[in-house]
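Quick one, T. Sequence first:
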Amino acid sequence: MRFAHRHLLGIEHLSQSDITAILDLAEKYVDLNRQSAKHSDVLAGLTQINMFFENSTRTQASFEIAGKRLGADVMNMAMQASSIKKGETLIDTAMTLNAMHPDLLVVRHPHSGAVDLLAQKVNCAVLNAGDGRHEHPTQALLDALTIRRAKGRLHRLNIAICGDVAHSRVARSNLILLGKMENRIRLIGPPTLVPSQFSEFGAEIYDDMNEGLQDVDVVMMLRLQKERMDGGFIPSEREYYHRYGLDVAKLALAKPDAIVMHPGPMNRGVEIDGTLADDINRSVIQEQVEMGVAVRMAAMELLARNLGEAA
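Structure tokens:
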């Protein structure tokens, strides 16, 4: 299983075979994670540092659990209370980290391109845990694994991505990955949140849920990212839910076996009906969380295999 990359900064540079290699290895970790003894030693002796310049609960916890299950020494750095607040630049931080000789660096940053800049300055493998509006590669990979397990394949599916596409790095990474795997993608939302330039990704754009959801296999809802909005993108949350929130009536337009996804955290009653989110017959939202740990274990193992060659 060859993975010829030093870092995992985005989906854009991955081939179909790269994506499949990560997902196939992740399948093995799904099995491991369901056993009573969940420990492996493939990262034994290696140091993993999680640097989150943005708050995150599930992504940081997922990477931490993944590293510990693989036997790595894991350290979380609280960047909100760090030297960055005292004026230290990102380059200074990179040089400081480099002197500590970490092996794996997991970074989330509010600015697009910041993780790539760090990767150019350090000697270890870097995993992008989300940078600005740019990419969130492990989220797209865990979504892909969830879809593949639910549908038995990851190609030639009709997939609807609904909601705040404009501000979503999750949507961008999924657009790239699902496009590479030959799926038909529909983007659904108000024009303020689904700009026309997203058609450049080969996606079909709809501003009406009733049209866009017709006969789709997968419905992926997105969080309204109010912290990234600097204007009136929606009239009100109540109106947004009425037009673009997923409920049983709207889901009925999709295929009878369509699955419902959401990267979390969810705004229940805004993006999705709470009862539908918890419906074990349609929703795979909890499976997405489970697949996240397995995918991150797989990605870190594949990058760790290349550490010796990079040195």
